[in-house]
Amino acid sequence: MSHIEYRHLSVTYRRPKTDEAFLAIDRISLAVERGSFVAVVGSSGCGKSTLLLAAAGLVAPASGSVAIGGAPVSGPGTEAAARSAMVFQDASLLPWRTVLGNVRFGLEMRRWSRDDLTERALRYIHMVGLADFADYHPHQLSGGMRQRVNIARALAVEPEVLLMDEPFGALDAQTREVMGNELLRLWERDRKTALFVTHDIDEAIFLADKVVVMGRDPGCIKDVLTVDLPRPRTPDVLDSAAFVALRRRLRESLAEDMAALRLVTEVA
Amino acid sequence: MSLSLDKPERLLRRGAGPGARLRWPFRRSTTISLLSVLVFLALWQMVPALGLMNVRYTSQPSEVATAFVEMLGEAPFYGHAWVSLREFVLGFALALALAVPCGVALGTSRYVRLVVDPPLMALYIAPPLVLLPILTIWLGIDMASKVAVVFLGAFFPVAVNTAAGMREADPRLVRAARSFGAGRLAVFSRVLVPGALPSILMGVRLAVGRGVLSVVVAELFVARAGIGHLLHVYGSALRMDRLLVCALVVSAFGYGLTQVVRRLEERVAIWRADS
């Protein structure tokens, strides 16, 4: 049985001003195998983040369901939702808490026993290479360091499933590459099931076993690519013929949406 | 020691050894502020002495200082100060105790906001002192009416700023907390309240000023005791020196308390350093 299972999942949102409902994702079915790394790509507004939020129980399905390990996710704080942990884009750290405090925060919310919270948090802070910065506040850290904290916070609660919503989206290209490598290194240690949303094609191929391509209006799955590059991967793989071929295919899959996007920006 | 602006650097440079170094203890900005006060005091002392102004209307720093020492030796002065202090503390404490929960309700519930916001804003903008005559009729000329005025003066800034702080909570933080399973209570106590704290304290700081103003003006208006009442008495008797002592005591109190809150704010908001 697959670890994360989307069954005909639809999610609707309400537009803030007019209050009319619109379909963010439309009857998506997707199975993510245990221990696999799946990347989701697509242009903005295709509902790729919604896909993650649904798995964390942060948005409710209009129809269909998401299950983790066979248990349906029916809201945040439910047993199924507690099997996952989410890594957000920048600015999801509590600015008044230190690095240690932020990593502890996840553990506190998940009601880990109080005794070893600090020790456990420090272990994960060490793991992401921030041992010397445990007492720093987020505003004192660079964007890349903040994302390390974000990752440590998620890993510390020892989730079965790691949900990552464009975690490197706000970083510059170099930092992004470093963080991608780092993430891969961490992931390859215990191979947690991972669902990773990005708009960066290279990043998606470099990290994932499978790349899901989403289309928009309404959000749906257009294509699923299997990435059979050998692991452990190093940045050298970016220049390999196999990688280049995959990249070309992905770009073709996305081309249609990109054209639509261009039109939209021109009209606007 | 004579004062001049370039003195600090010169003194520093001339320093012979770490122990013997004669070091001007203030920063340049502090020095300038200090200097302006000293110049003002000097002018104030000299202008009446030269006969350019009537000392009866302006008094002089030396007279004020003498009056201050005298008054420190008089029991009634402490009595009046004690009355004012109690009025202030009671009204202020009451305001804090009610304004913070009110602000929280206002900042978190849309319905409470829709119902309460218009009258609240109206009362916030109107000086609470406009209600003083009514409060005097209702509560008499003693402490109760002053406590009420202080309460009104301090309540609104705290409530309004608390509400704003709660409302401006970052939805991304709330979402992150919820993703880790935080319930309503945990989101409230771990995310919303700490996030609103700087804003609440800003309200408290504004409230200090308004509270001090309220107590003094209310006592000036009609009272039998208190620093404001003393101000009134000395004003009627044309005792400028004593009147100014009262004014200084009030402003020192307000300034001191404001500084205390400001320190707290800085402490709480170290994380805002980047914004």
Task: Walk me through this protein's architecture.
- The complex is a heterodimer of chains A (268) and B (275).
- With 268 residues, chain A is of the alpha/beta class.
- Chain A has one domain (2-267): Rossmann fold (3-Layer(aba) Sandwich).
- Helices cover 36% and strands 24% of the residues of chain A.
- Chain A has a six-stranded mixed sheet with strand order 6-7-8-3-9-10, sandwiched between helices.
- The radius of gyration of chain A is 18 Å and the shape is globular.
- The termini of chain A are far apart.
- Chain B is an all-alpha fold and 275 residues long.
- The longest helix of chain B is centred in the C-terminal third of the chain and has 38 residues, at 184-221.
- Chain B starts with 6 loop residues before the first helix and ends in a 7-residue tail after the last helix.
- The relative contact order of chain B is 0.10.
- The chains are: A alpha/beta (268), B mainly alpha (275).
- Chains A and B meet through helix 2 of A and helix 9 and helix 10 of B.
**Could you tell me the radius of gyration of chain B in angstroms?**
24 Å
For the sheet with most strands of chain A, the description reads: 6 strands, mixed
Number of strands of chain B: 0
What string gives the helices and strands of chain A in order?
A: EEEHEEEHHHEHEHEEH
What general outline of chain B do the C-alpha atoms trace? globular
The 3D shape of chain A can be described as globular
Strand segment tally of chain A = 10
Which strand-content bin applies to the residues of chain A? 15-25%
Neighbour order of strands in the largest sheet of chain A: 6-7-8-3-9-10
Strand content of chain B: under 5%
End-to-end C-alpha gap of chain A: 46 Å
For the termini of chain B, the CA-CA separation is 42 Å
CATH topology heading of chain A: Rossmann fold
Average pLDDT over all residues of chain A: 87
Helix content of chain A: 25-40%
